[in-house]
Amino acid sequence: MTSFPSNANLTVHFAHSAYRLAERFVPRMPEVAHFQTWTADETRARIGEGDVLVVSGFWDNAMLTDAEALKFIQVCAAGYDQFDQSAIAARGIRLANAAGVNANAVSDHAMALLLGLTRKLHDARDNQRARHWRGMISDISQREDELTGKTMMVYGVGRIGGRIARLARAFGMRVIGVKRDLSQPVADVDELVSPDAFVPALAEADVVVLSCPLTEATRGLMNAQAFAAMRPSAIVINVARGGCADQDALIHALETGQIAGAGIDVTEPEPLPDDSRLWALDNVILTPHTGGETRQYEENVLDALVENIGRLQRGEPNLLNQIV
Fold first, then answer.
1. pLDDT tens digits for range 89-110
2. Tell me, what DSSP letter sits at residue 316?
3. Can you tell me the distance from the alpha carbon of 31 to that of 21, in angstroms, rounded to the nearest whole number?
4. How far apart are the first and last CA of the chain?
5. Which one of 42, 191, 289, 293 is the catalytic residue?
6. What is the pTM of this model?
7. The total number of structural domains that make up the chain
8. 69 class by beta-carbon count within 10 Å (0-12 exposed, 13-18 middle, 19+ buried)
């Protein structure tokens, strides 16, 4: 690979439809030339102009043909399945993702969904809009609930799942973690089980949180068998990927009372179609994949970008969150 340009000779191309990366980059490295494209077409048209590309959803592997100056791709998200790693490596281009930059945001969001469901905040909002003052409830099963003493199962106890476990412990919950490697304990996790033991262990869980990558092993892991193994009083929180849950099985479980509710930040497909039954379910809180999107997101991505630019300029072999 050719030597990486100095700041005076470097051009950074930011490509995103919403994130204001370019304007937040200026205070960090004002001497570095940069520009932002806001659509996929505009990104393709200008792909040959940047030494560095900061991108996520706009990426198309066909862009490699015209990306003559490109030396480094900083993915501004955790997912990188859309990148042809072999083709990128063959071109001598480096690739890193932004894993961990939204760990605080997504773990906060998971707990917000859980608290919203257990404290019935969605019902309270509906009552507020209807100007209805709900009276006290005699039916114990219909009241708000508490988290202390409950058991949470977290599938995927990496940076996001590990912080969810820490937050759950702060609420007095017992935490079961699902992890392939059981040889080392995980902080704030009371018990570790393997993916093979996931379904049998579901009967212990009051809350199941998905915070794992979408892989062939995790696709559809919450399926009809898994929902049937859960307690009728249990809640599912999905801040992983929509494909980690069989959506038809999830809807069936919610409609038939197999489970009590779900907090969903991710669906398959996205956006969720207008005719999906998920929209109308009273026992669901649904957010449009906004778990990681906060006022701090641009700054978190730029922390990783600036660090990696420095490593490349110094000729260091390893990047932060290196993929290629």
1. 999 999 999 999 999 999 999 9
2. -
3. 16
4. 12
5. 289
6. 0.91
7. 2
8. middle
- Same domain for 160 and 88: no
**Catalytic site includes residue 298:** no
Structure tokens that stand for 219 in this block: 């696709």
pLDDT tens column, 181-211 = 999 999 999 999 999 999 999 999 999 999 9
Which residue is associated with the tokens 């009371």? Answer: 190
In this structure, what CATH number is given to the domain that contains residue 48? 3.40.50.720
Say if strands 11-15 and 284-286 run parallel, antiparallel, or are unpaired: unpaired
Residue 144 lies in a domain: yes
- What does the chain come to in residues? 324
Residues 253 and 163 in one domain: yes
Q: Which of 122, 241, 298, 311 is catalytic?
A: 241
Q: Is 255 a catalytic residue?
A: no
DSSP state of 177: E
Residues 186/157, Cβ–Cβ less than 8 Å: yes
Q: Which domain holds residue 217?
A: 103-286
Cis link prior to 195 (omega < 30° from 0)? no
